[in-house]
Amino acid sequence: MQTPIINVVDVTKEYGNTTVLSAIDFKLNHGEVVALLGENGAGKTTLINTILGLTAHSKGAVKVFDADAGSKTARQRIGCVLQDTQLPDTLTPIEHLTLFSSYYPTPLPLEVLIDLLSLEDFAHRRLNQLSGGQKQRLYLALAMCGDPDIIFLDEPTVGLDIHSRKQLWNAIKKLQQAGKSIILTTHYLEEADALAERLVYLVKGQIQFDGAMSEFKKQFNAKTICAISDLDIHEVDAWDTVTAVTRNQDRVSIVTHHVEAVLARLFQSNVNLSDLTVSSQTLENIMYQISQQNSDVVKGVDQ
Amino acid sequence: MKSATLRIYYLEAKFEFLKAIRVPAFTLPSLIFPAMFYIFFGLMFNSGSHPQHAAYLMATYAVFGIIGPALFSFGVGVAIEKDQGWLQLKQASPMPISAYFFARAVSAALFGLVIVMLLFTLGALFGDVRFTHAEWLLSLLALILGSLPFAALGLLLGLSVKGQAAAAVVNLIYLPMAFLSGLWLPIQMLPDFFQYFAWIFPAFHLAQIVLAIQEQSLGYPIVVHLLSLVAMTLLFVALAMRAYRRA
Amino acid sequence: MNKLLPLFFIAALVSFILLLPTPTEEQPTSTSLRIKNASWFDGTKWQQSDLYINEGVIAHPDSAAETIDLTGKFIIPGLIDAHTHIWGDAPQQSLQFGVTSMVDLFSDSDVKVFNQRIKDIQQAQYADIFSAGILATSQGGHGTQFGVTVNTVNAPTEAAKFVVEQVDRGAQFIKIVYHHEANYGPFTSIDRATLQALIKAAHAQNKLALVHVSHLEAAKHAIAEGADGLVHMISDQDIDEEFIALAKQKKIFIIPTLAVIAAMNQGHQLTWLEPQLRLYNRLSEAQRQQLTQTFNVPFAKQNLLAIAMRNTQRLHQANVPLLAGSDAPNPGTLIGVSLHHELALLQQSGLSATATLQAATYGAALELSLPQRGRLHVGDRADLIVLGKDPATNIHHTQSIEQVMKNGRWIKLQSFNTKAPSIPITEFPIDAAGKVAASDFQFIATSDQMMSGNSSAALTFIQGKCAQPEILGVQISGDIKPGFAFPWSGAMLNFSRNFSASYDLSDFTSLSFNTAGNVGRYRLLIFSEHQQQPKMITFTVNEQCSKQTIEFAAHPNVNWEAVQGLAWVAGQEQSQFRLLIDTIKLNP
Question: Is C250 part of any domain?
Fold first, then answer.
């Protein structure tokens, strides 16, 4: 096991009576790309701000390259795209990059940045003339300009059209290939799936899942069987193969990883079934599912 | 300081200034209003009054003039950039955040300088204002350094209020303070009560310092006004630091 | 570029500050000057080369000098009037007419002040005055009739004491009034022994003895007793060969003062004053009137002038040095102006134009030992006149004065010929109620109470601490209190009630007054017609008496041509204060 470049140990953050982060343990190793998922208010941004040193935590320890979070050493090796950032409109990308590059001891040459993020078409235009995607690429360039080891991307593609999103994904993949460690928050499982190998799932300030993307999908790759039926949901819920059963008037939903086995047993038990459908899980369903479990953290496989 | 750090300060100041002058609709009024007011109240509607009137109001409108950029740059500018996340992005970067405030102070001082020079020119050309070189220079320096307390007050406001509300809040403080500190009309023309009430305003103290250079102050020792300004500045800075940590 | 930026910025700021106007208190500066293309008279002969001036004196050629081209102009040394009496503003007024040095042959002026000014090469407001102080005359003799306190000399034994007294007072010459008889008209005279004693005493003090005589017999006595010069031409009769021989033998000089002798003749005309030349038009009608006034000397002969001119001619032919002197301001004469009359009369008496010029320049300086005056050699004072017409062809052309320089500085020439009412007085004698004699002028207290301020002022009119005895000054006791924006307290000199009248002060060059009181800055406010606000000039007051001079030229923004009143006030910077103002004077 190598030394983690980010080490969050038992971090709790409270605002008054509200607990925003609760006993978070999180490690990031060199070269990893981690997707941080969670509902709004789950604590993703707070966790990132804590690691960046922008927000103080109530308890625990956060180290970045063995330095305190927010220390100059830490800040020199981190680049970030924060959520909902707007840059002053009256400067041009070149001017913003010139200024930002001056903050770092070993900045990337401007040409390299412009090339890497394909900024040349609008490098000399004022920001109020740029599209959302162009701005987002500039933000990424700002995150990159100090040639950092770790890059934080807090919802980098939110509000972008498909095309811009794909362009940005390509840019992020290039960073990944360049050996950067990336922490990415997103609403989109698809985006996490496309970019990250590891996934951390936050619910109400707690880590509900932390493991490989494949493991996550395996665990949560359940299907839903839906039918109009008078079956006894408590009986069905007791089956080993069934994850969850819910009834909505005469319609029953059964969540399971073993569709065929459950269907066979349903048919065998001679209950009335009509209007039967089988569908894949949506992320929303998974989130619902996880929140319903209300159980201990689902442990992924240690990498 | 290392030259790399110096370069950060220089670039911050340069781009801060560029940012400001690229919004002429916002910048020009703040440059022109003090001069316009001075032309109206100090020069045109001044016939028959005392010959020192032009010099007196030149000083007080200059104070009015330098407060504007300082309060707005910090009060409104910081509030907006704080809301837009720009400030946070800088905080996350390895830049010394002092460079950001330094840049705003320099930019505000430069605008203040232009306003002061404009007023001095008007006073000299059309108001028959005559000072010794030392008096001109002292007045100029006092005015430029005098923008600092207002930068501190602006910073406190900028960090405390939402960007959308900032302009309204700043104006709500700026304009009444200017009037009640005797920047538009000599303080002696206000009822007695206001002459004592004015002591709570930094603008009053700065105006008295600048007026003392031309021997037109109310006559209290300069050091009293200086100490008041320093104390107010420290208070604003302390409160601003608290707000900064919370932001 | 980036490194130069702060430098550029600072330079711009410094230039801005330096460009801003400062209170005008500085004197016009004397710089190195080169005058080219003018014909100039150096005191003895005419020259064409460039004339250099530096630090108030004629200088060696200097390539750095600022050049002015005076093509077609004629330059002569500043004129010396060898016989005047100095009253009031004569030293300033004479400069206006090109007379830059004067010999004061009796006045009660403070001679030491004149002697100080002679040394001051910076000043350009006054002609240099070389004074004889009080004249030596007998009890009831000529000179005692003017109301000036004169210590008479009635015996040879009193001579030495008198002379020493005069020398102690600063006298440059000893002037003696003598007649060969005990009585002359209403006057007595010192006797010949006393004359002899006075001349000896003067010589013992290394002073020239200048003797006032009008009769040939008296003149012969004076020369025989060792007089150095006679201050009038003999006018009782034509001189004889004996006198001419005596004058040549004793190497005396004579100041004929034909201008004043002319005024003793009934109906003397202004034929000498050329209407087409500049001087004529600069004189007011009243001044021209003054020049035609006649001297009533009932005991004098009617043809004095003709005799005096004939005598002048013969003495000139005999090479007896003649010096131009006007004896102004006697009736019929004007300070400064009448010397031009004297020059015209000398020319008329047969002197060439150049000889006449010499009589008013180097000739006079040489005979009277006036150092650095009357000549334009390197090291001499840069006192000169620029003429539009050549005085060598006609001495009347000295009336074509275009510019006057004193101590290297150009004088602002004024026209006295103005239609606006000129201020009737130049000094402001105050009575115990604050009224100014011979005028409607009145001193009143003024303060911001009229603007609902809280300051106060009170005036008393007392013996001025800084004035000569018996002259009252204005004592202001004031208290500046906050209340009005621009508090003030002081004394106002209204030229009329309610500012209804204004007077032209522009014929003067400055206003002076003495001050003493609480140390600090005070302001003189000048209320003028067509100017809604008074103009303000600051001055600094010490505990000790100090003389403040407000140069009008330095304050062109004041409408000096229509002044309605003056105020001396304290402002914000004072609290309780006392300020004394006296000896207020307008200076030509």
Answer: yes
